[in-house]
Amino acid sequence: DIQMTQSPSTLSASVGDRVTITCRASQSISSWLAWYQQKPGKAPKLLIYKASSLESGVPSRFSGSGSGTEFTLTISSLQPDDSATYYCQQYNSIQVSFGQGTKLEIK
Amino acid sequence: EVQLVESGGGLVQPGGSLRLSCAASGFTFSSYEMNWVRQAPGKGLEWLSYIGRSDITIYYADSVKGRFTISRDNAKNSLYLHMNSLRAEDTAVYYCAKVNSGYYYFDYWGQGTLVTVSS
Q1: How far is CA B3 from the centre of its chain?
Q2: Are B49 and B61 contacting, i.e. CB atoms less than 8 angstroms apart?
Q3: pLDDT digits (tens, 9 = 90+) for A63-73
């Protein structure tokens, strides 16, 4: 099984800040990585797929990069609406797995 | 508009059974692979099960293998999760999720249904 590890677990930043979340895979997953945003009481929402492709309708301040075992999600200019928990997910195989999540708080 | 609506959650005693349903609309259900994912209270996302476009190809997480059964009825545009031998640690919100065509990430999720296993 492929293990996904996110860092940090929690993050506090101010509006306008550039924020980066890291996701590491226990083995190479090429670019088969997605990022999701989840707000309390809501279902996850797809942000990024194939490591760096922006899902339709997602603001351009979100971007993804990486390949192999190390990936990043970057928010270029943090907005109040970005307060949420973010999850990475590998889909190198049908038996996918998620990172443990990064809770992003706005100062 | 793609919609996934889960139902069937509720309170069940340890050792009991429950069947979750996911009603799909807004897309050609029979053309897409589907999954179940759960989230325990205050915890992260856990993938549970995958089913192909027919029910020939099925996978389970080790945590539910032998206790949970995924199925689908393409004529009814519905996905199911039959859960047996439920344990307290199965308490979670259960989501159905649609796979993007050919790639195993989830482009649409339902709103979730809460399953509580408690005596």
Answers
A1: 15
A2: yes
A3: 999 999 999 99
